[in-house]
Amino acid sequence: MIRVVLADDEDLIRGALAALLELESDISVVAQARDGEAAVRAIAEHGPDIAVLDLEMPRLDGIAAAEAVRRRTAVVIVTRHARPGVLRRALAAGVRGFVPKTTPAARLAAILRDVHQGARYVDSEIAASALTEDACPLTARELEVLRHTRAGGSVLDIAAAVHLAHGTVRNYLSSAMAKLGVTSRHDAARVAWEEGWI
């Protein structure tokens, strides 16, 4: 029996997917979670074979949750925003499967079986896009301050969070804006998110 923890912040989607996976004779959904932190706790408590995590969840997103559990549980990410940059981040976090939410439940069950046997699965369209995508022009620090910008932080909040002077944070934001050809830090954060870099 393949034991699964399922996490998605949308109750209807999570419940429907759990019900469909439970119809498979060799898959059991042992726990469900509404956010990334709850998913990490459920994985620690239940020790599943596989965690199926939504990419965009409150508290911890699917990739951050995957990083937290990668040594004990295989992770499959499901998403409706399958951007190539996100795929690169997911693979770097040790994710074993990356599938769009449009994947039929029977196909997802087959992917879970393959992952349980040690295989990896990446949706072919996402993989093709990742191979043709331009490299990210931003530095790790620029991405870090944009990640905090997207979360709604002020420059002072970001400076405190990343342990830098607020002038240094402004410099990183200005550099990122210039590289992306935008006029505000919020636009820079939006572009970085849309490209899957943050």
- Please state the average pLDDT score: 90
**Topology-level CATH name of the largest domain:** Rossmann fold
Number of DSSP-assigned strands? 6
Question: What is the number of domains?
Answer: 2
Number of helices: 10
What would your notes on this structure say?
The chain has helices at residues 11-22, 36-46, 62-69, 84-92, 105-116, 124-132, 140-150, 155-162, 166-180, 185-194, and strands at residues 2-7, 27-33, 50-54, 74-79, 97-100, 121-122. The protein is of the alpha/beta class and 198 residues long. The chain has two domains: 2-132, Response regulator (Rossmann fold); 140-194, Winged helix-like DNA-binding domain superfamily/Winged helix DNA-binding domain (Arc Repressor Mutant, subunit A, Orthogonal Bundle). The chain has a six-stranded parallel β-sheet with strand order 2-1-3-4-5-6, sandwiched between helices. 38% of the residues are buried. The model has no long low-confidence stretch (mean pLDDT 90).
Could you provide a short overview of the structure?
53% of the residues lie in helices and 15% in strands. By secondary structure, the protein is an alpha/beta fold. The longest helix is centred in the last third of the chain and has 15 residues, at 166-180.
